[in-house]
Give the backbone structure.
Amino acid sequence: MNHSMDKQHLLIIEDCKEVRENLAETLEFFDYRITAAANGREGVKACISLPPDLILCDVKMAGLDGYCVLKLLTKNERTAHIPFIFITAKTEPEEISRGMDLGADGYITKPFSKNELLRVIRTHLSLLV
């Protein structure tokens, strides 16, 4: 069995408590170590203090939205290299291209299946190896 430090560490930044908790529970079941943040500001702080292996971030959040979070993290040398996946209900091509232009590594659209979520995460984590 993996020691907890051997587990890949994911940061979930999601303002909807139910979505955040469901994501955390699902991913912990698949042996990921999870840090969850309820808003963009918390997420940026968590990411800088303990950089994860991958970030899952909601686009639409009050205060610091996902785009702002991504901008801040790509400017920080401690966090700029971390794969960043947007979680969004928006599927308009211009929304997606805006995120990709800012440096997002991918998008996953709500509602998504557990398999789709795991595929996206595993794909981006395997690119780091």
In short: The longest helix spans residues 17-29.
